[in-house]
Amino acid sequence: MMTLSALQFFVFGALAIGCLQGAHARKWRNTGGTIILEEAWTTPDLVNQLGNTSAALGGTNAELKANLLDIHNQRLRFMDENNVDYMVLSCASPCIQGISDPAQAEDMAVTVNNILADSISNNTMRFGAFAALSMHNATNAALELKRTVQELGFLGGLVNDYQQSGPDNATLLYYDQTEYDVFWQMVSDLDVPIYFHPRGNIPQIKSPSIGHAPWLAGPAQEYAATLSNHILGLCTNGVFDRFPKAKIIVGHLGERIPSDLFRIDEQLKRQLPLGMPMKLNVTSYWQTNIWETTSGNFATDLLQFHIETIGLDRIMYSVDYPFVAIDEGEAWVQTLPNVLSKRQLETLTRGVAIQVLGLDR
C-alpha cells in the first residue's frame, strides 16, 4: 500500500491542478444528445457480488449480469438507439465498499480502474469513467483518485456509500470524519466530483431495520434511507465548510433529501447550540457543493419541485442502466418538452453535466 507523510501529500496535491491545466481538451461525441452518468459496469471477479439483485421488469438476472459486463455491444447499441452521446461508467455496487480487508480492497480498486480504462480506451468519444476507490485509508484513496484522473483520464470517483471494514465486516467507515480531510483536499485540488451511490446494507443493519419487511431492501427504501444519512453527515460534520470547492453528486433525485429540505433545515437549527460543526444549512450546500441526477427516478412533478427548490443548474439527467432501461429514460425525456423549454431541457440532459464533469475543458 502507498503511504505519504502529510507534507508530501499536500505538496503532491497542490501540483494536481497545474498538471490538469496542461492537459489537452477532452474529445467526446458532442452532437446534442444526452449525457448519462450513473451507469453501472462490473468485472467477472465482482459480478457475483450482486447476488440476487432484481433485474428490471421483463428481464432476468442473467441478462442483468450480461449487461453489466458488456460495454461495446448491447450497451452501445442502446445508446445509439436512444440519443445518448456520452456515458460515464462506474463499478456496480457495492464494488470496493464491499471488501473489508484494506489491502485486498486497495488492490482490487487499482485492478478495476485499470480494467475499465483499458476497456474504454478504444472509444473514449462515447465513454468516460468514475474511479472505484478503497476508502479504508484516506490518503491512499486520494492518491488513487489522483492517479485515475491524471493518468487514466477519469472524470472523478464513485463511492458506494460507507466502506465496510473489520474482521466481522461490521466496522463502517464514513467519509464525513476529519481523518478524510486529506481525501477532500485532493478532490478539491483536482476539481472533480465524487458520486455517492447507495449499497445494500451489511446484515447487522439490514436485519433489524427491514427484517420485518424484506421487500423494502434495495432501491424502494433501503438505499435512500442509508445513503441520505451519509450525505447529511457530510453537511452536518462540516465537510463543505472546510472544503468549499468539493463537489459531490447524488442520484435518484437526491435520495429524497431535496424533497424534505424545509424540515431538515428547521430541525437542525436545534443542533447548533450543541456543537454541530455545520456553519450554514443543508439547503445552502445544495447550492454550492451538491448536485443530483434523475437516475431511475423519472417523476416529472418531482423534477419540477426540485427545479423550484434547488434549481435546474443542480440537476443532471441519468438513467441507472442496466437496472433501468435506457429507452425508458429516453421515453421520459421525450415527454419533458411539455413542462420544460428547449433551453431548460438541454441544461438538464447535457449542459450541467458538461460543466460538472469538465467536458468543456
Automatic annotation (TrEMBL):
Residues 1-25 form the signal peptide. Keywords: Decarboxylase, Lyase, Signal. The keyword Signal applies. GO terms for cellular component: cytosol. GO terms for molecular function: carboxy-lyase activity; hydrolase activity. PANTHER family: 2-AMINO-3-CARBOXYLMUCONATE-6-SEMIALDEHYDE DECARBOXYLASE, AMIDOHYDROLASE FAMILY PROTEIN (AFU_ORTHOLOGUE AFUA_7G05840). This is Amidohydrolase-related domain-containing protein. It comes from Leucocoprinus leucothites.
